[in-house]
Design a protein that fits this description.
The chain is an alpha/beta fold and 250 residues long. The protein has helices at 40-51, 74-83, 99-111, 129-142, 155-168, 183-187, 209-222; strands at residues 7-12, 27-31, 57-60, 90-94, 115-122, 145-151, 175-180, 196-199, 240-243, 246-249. The N and C termini lie close together (8 Å).
Length: 250
Amino acid sequence: MIGNKPQVCLCVKPGSESVAGIDYADLLEFRLDLSPDKGIRFLEGELEKLSRHGKPIILTNRSREEGGEFHGSERERVTLLESLLDYVDCIDVELSTEDCLRDGVIKKAQEKGIKSIVSFHDFRETPSKAWIESIVEKELALGDTAKIAFKVNNPGDILSLYQVCLGMGEGNNRIIAIPMGSPLGRIAGVLFNVPVFYSGDIAPGQLSAKQTRELLDLHFKSNNHALKDGGYESINTLECRKTKGGAGVR
């Protein structure tokens, strides 16, 4: 990532005429599964347009089991992700993906210098702290960053999620934790070294990029000391580079 503050990631649906709030975002997540057209030429064109904004792009093709809308086979889903690696800076692949497919796309991304987020989503509930820790441990062993997103049903769920960040983060900000369904719960991650905050209108409790940016900025204006001890090095991934489609980041 760029800089030493947490970053706003705006979720983008391919085919959108305009992307509301893009000026407030640091990163862009391109959701292949939400595209009205899964053809390579169409998707390449959309990525080329998106790259003109000069922001790092995270490529995601979310499975239906974890809240996505891709209707093909698992192999087709991962193959589509692999076919567009040259246009992006980071990929998001589910921990639950078949081992050989998941590990294969992560390896191909690494060979191209592309970072990987290994993710897990549950839109029903938040499991025990021990279970969350086991998920994060597996994710960190596979990719550059772990992402956990759980539906929170009470304040204790939010605490369980962020306790894992405190216990396993080790000051390296490699864990993205998302308490789905709680807008303010999401923003509270700023207190627990969460490096990236997703925004848009795709998942439960997401705020707009503008709202997210303003709340994060408000926190740092009131707590400038937060950056003095450790601060945010974020995922330590993305610095500007040139991609096939134009300006990118690594």
